[in-house]
Amino acid sequence: MSFDPIPFNWLEALKHFAFVFGSSMVIALVVCLVVGVITRGTKGFVDVFRGVLDFFVQIIHISPRRIWSLSVLTIRESLRQKILFVFIIFAVLFMFAGWFLAGAADRPDLQVQSYIDFVLKAISWLVIPIMLLLACWSLPEDIRLRTIHTVVTKPVYRIEIVMGRMLGFTVLGTAILLVMGGVGYIWINRQVPDTAKESLVSKVPIYGDISFTNREGAPAASGINVGDIWMYRSYIEGATKARAIYKFEGVDESDAIDDKLNLQASFEAFRTHKGDMEKGGILYELTFVNEDKGLRVDTSPMINKEYTENRLQIDRKLSQKKNEGEADQEVVTYDIFDDLVDKDGNLTVEVACLEAGQLLGMARPDLFIRTPDRSFMVGYSKAILGIWLPMVLVIMLGVTVSCFVKGPVAILTTFTVVMVGFMSKEYMNEILSGKMQASGAIEAWYRLLTHMNSQTELPNGPVKGIIVVVDGGIRNFLWLCQQIIPNFGIFSNMREYVIKGFDVSWSAALLPGLLTTAAYILPCLLISFYSLKLRELEAK
């Protein structure tokens, strides 16, 4: 998995939501009008708009007191179903987990990662399925046992019943999550050995943009491809003019630690010959560049140690020999923040491999400025928030689906939506992007039956026309499913930050998670309200 945080464009996401939600509401309204006119004539037309108005009337007249009372009732019903037994499973897992998670003594950082990964996965795999079962089963069971009649006979709106269920399950799930999260935090701190305590932090990086030059020094789109299938890293050739150029924005003195610029590197080596293995790595050099002042200041050669944190603490004051090669050489001292950061606040760093016949691979996140660390508690709390958000989303989806189908069907439907949202979003993106050859279902079957490979063009004729039309319809339906099904993969990214020792980014992880959850509140309320309003509550 690549760890390349990309800032989230919330404005584009808001426009996309408005387009999809608005289009869906218009289509739903037109369908309801057509069905109403066909079945009831002009009265059906009036009934549709009366039903639309009824939702807004109930939203305006909702009572927080009634919603909270329904939430308390929901919590009590859940507790009577022995929901707290989940803590027994949780306790058993943590009692014996330490036996199986002991890592290698020479890699304490990996041991820390395994502890954090176990805790976060154990919490999410226990809390989310439990809340899914409760949210999907509660309302259909009340309808089957007719206990809901004690509620609907009182002055309670249908929308309040839905909101009370959602809020009650959310409060209950939040309480369980807080207890498990607190126990998990204490367990991690007790299990981590003293030699790895320094790895238990939340690093706050500043990432830059990366560009390359080739062996002649000319700008290049990327570095050298060494034959790796995974095109995540590009490589620069040693002892040539090939460079990887990092440009960091918004750099100032507050990013320094103890009057030093802290960089962290995780480059990957590709050797064309064995070389000097006693050094422990390939030599490389950093050059700080300020184009505005025409300054280029080199650092001392460094050794790239793979699979470890190469934390580079560079003094703020760098000395450079001037008039090199002449008799009277002058040593000039430059300040990184005063002299090498340009007028726009950008810091440019060039990376050069110094050994001939060796190559150094890097991607955008492989070199970053490490600003003062935050405590592990900060990143861990955000990771728990990353479990809470999909839990709330699952609760909303479960309650919504349970408003129009029975419990077992609601559980299966919600579980399918969650699994597709976790596992199939990337595959759907590949199909819809058009990059996948023979991505249409009908075209794939046609090529399979006729033994035609994916590079051969389909023969012109009516068969091709039918295939194009049908596959186009399937792709449009898949696009609609892609917009409706939430992307649960966004939430798992928060866990990856903490496991790798980073603070969870607001723009790349927290913001998209919050907006994704918030985007489903109104659609779920609308569907739940009309489904519960049209459902026959007398039926078992």
UniProtKB/TrEMBL annotation:
Keyword Nuclease: no
Keywords: Membrane, Transmembrane, Transmembrane helix
Coiled coil: none
Domain of life: Bacteria
Residues annotated as transmembrane: 17-38, 83-102, 122-139, 167-188, 377-397, 404-423, 509-532
Keyword Membrane listed: yes
Protein name per Swiss-Prot or TrEMBL: ABC transporter permease
